[in-house]
Amino acid sequence: MAKKKAAAKNTKSFEESLWKTATKLRGTLLPKLIIGELRIEDAEKMVGGMG
């Protein structure tokens, strides 16, 4: 039972980390994409192999 709780905690922590990263990327890239300051190809290069 303790292993399940530890695994659930690690999964939740990992998911929270992903959400924080996605939120930061959205906050950084989306405004630049909307105003045309940044192109999709450039954003893909900035993000790297995340997708």
Helix-strand blueprint:
Elements: H1 2-35, H2 40-47
Write the element-wise H/E pattern from the N-terminal end onward: HH
Major β-sheet, in short?
A: none
Q: Counting H and I runs of at least 4 residues, what is the number of helices?
A: 2
The total count of strands amounts to: 0
- Average pLDDT number: 84
What is the distance, rounded to the nearest whole angstrom, between the alpha carbons of the first and last residues? 34 Å
Helix/strand structural class: mainly alpha
- In the predicted model, the low-confidence regions spanning at least 5 consecutive residues are none
Radius of gyration: 16 Å
**Spatial shape:** rod-shaped
Strand content range: under 5%
Can you offer a commentary on this structure?
With 51 residues, the protein is mostly helical. Helices cover 82% and strands 0% of the residues.
Q: What descriptive keywords fit this protein?
A:
51 residues, 82% helix, rod-shaped
In short:
By secondary structure, the chain is mainly alpha-helical.
